[in-house]
Specification:
Largest sheet: 3 strands, antiparallel
Number of strands: 5
Structural class: mainly beta
Radius of gyration: 16 Å
Order of helices and strands: EEEEE
Strand content: 35-45%
């Protein structure tokens, strides 16, 4: 089985689009597949947002047996140490007859007029 994990690299001191040199942090990987049935085999980063001095990461996980993708949420104070506040997916597939009935993935979260909005693939 291939295990996918998520790492972290802080931004360069100056931004030069042609010569970006990222440095990996020592605590990598920062997120590994969870102990939950829905994300215990593979995880993929979707969107990270800083709100009120806290980082939020929406990611999606895969259960190979059920072959279902679901979206989860982690939170962090420093962007390195992440906690799982719910231990459950925050967005699950719709009914089997719906457009997102086989899975939800690739979350993109933005704040618009003080409201969190999520775009995702179904």
């Amino acid at each position: 089985m291939i295990q996918l994990i998520i790492g972290c690299s802080p931004k360069p001191e100056r931004i030069d689009l042609f010569n970006l040199k990222w440095e990996k942090v020592r605590n990598n990987p920062i997120i590994k597949p969870g102990n939950h049935r829905w994300d215990h085999e593979q995880i993929f980063v979707g969107s990270v947002l800083k709100q009120n001095e806290k980082y939020f990461m929406w990611y999606y996980g895969k259960n190979m047996k059920e072959r279902t993708l679901q979206i989860g949420l982690k939170e962090s104070i420093d962007g390195i140490e992440w906690k799982d506040p719910t231990m459950m997916p925050v967005l699950t597939p719709g009914d089997k007859t719906e457009w997102d009935g086989t899975g939800v993935s690739k979350p993109c979260v933005k704040v618009e007029n003080n409201v969190l909005k999520m775009w995702y693939i179904g």
